[in-house]
Amino acid sequence: MMISLEQTGKRFNYDWIFRGVTLSFQAGERYAILGPNGSGKSTLLQVISGAIQHNEGTIQYSTPEKPIAHDAFFRYCAIAAPYLELIEEFTLTEIIEFHLQFKQFLPGITPVMAMQLVGLEKAAGKQLRNFSSGMKQRIKLALAILSDVPVLLLDEPCTNLDAAGVALYQQLINQYGGNRLIIVSSNDEQEYFMCRHYIHITDYKQ
Ligand SMILES: Nc1ncnc2c1ncn2[C@@H]1O[C@H](COP(=O)(O)OP(=O)(O)OP(=O)(O)O)[C@@H](O)[C@H]1O
């Protein structure tokens, strides 16, 4: 999967958050979107995901075989982000079952394994409303990283994680990141440790 932005810009009301973004995200590569609080990292990631509409320029998604329509891209990507809420009424087992109605796990990964990989197997029957914020973040990461999709979009992936949680995140990426396109929005090196390409959002302020 390749994602190409050409002179892409996003504004809220009269404020341009970024303009003139011309970038190509290549299959198998790992990118970090960097910048201070409020600079627009998360907005750029959401524009890339198609969750919010850009105001100028273009975004194109393609595989080596064919272009991917904007309204089909969601099938090819998994997202973990602070603003994406889990359904609090579900138990951990139920949220995994629900997730698997839309996305498959990587080959060989079972729901029980997914829980074990993030240290939550004992909480299988517990309602998510009773999980701590760090436990919820572990679930979001497992659901995203273990999904069998070619693109991972991670917004501040270590939000609410303690040191053990950060280590788990890094282990999940190392073990299951594979040859996928990964884009991380972050200002914490522990979150983008695996990235070789850096995008500084402040380069796109006009
Ligand atoms: N829906 C919206 N309406 C108006 N302004 C918005 C909206 N969403 C974001 N913004 C503004 O866009 C700017 C960029 O926000 P964004 O969340 O992308 O920053 P960020 O770099 O991810 O910040 P942080 O590091 O704090 O997460 C901020 O000034 C924010 O207030």
UniProtKB/TrEMBL annotation:
Question: Which PROSITE patterns has this protein been placed in?
Answer: ABC_TRANSPORTER_1, ABC_TRANSPORTER_2
SMART domains, A to Z = AAA
Q: Which Pfam families match?
A: ABC_tran
Q: Where are the transmembrane segments?
A: none
- On whether Hydrolase is a keyword of this UniProt record, the answer is no
Recorded GO molecular functions are: ATP binding; ATP hydrolysis activity
Name of the protein in its database record: ABC transporter ATP-binding protein
The organism's taxonomic lineage, starting at the top: Bacteria, Pseudomonadati, Bacteroidota, Chitinophagia, Chitinophagales
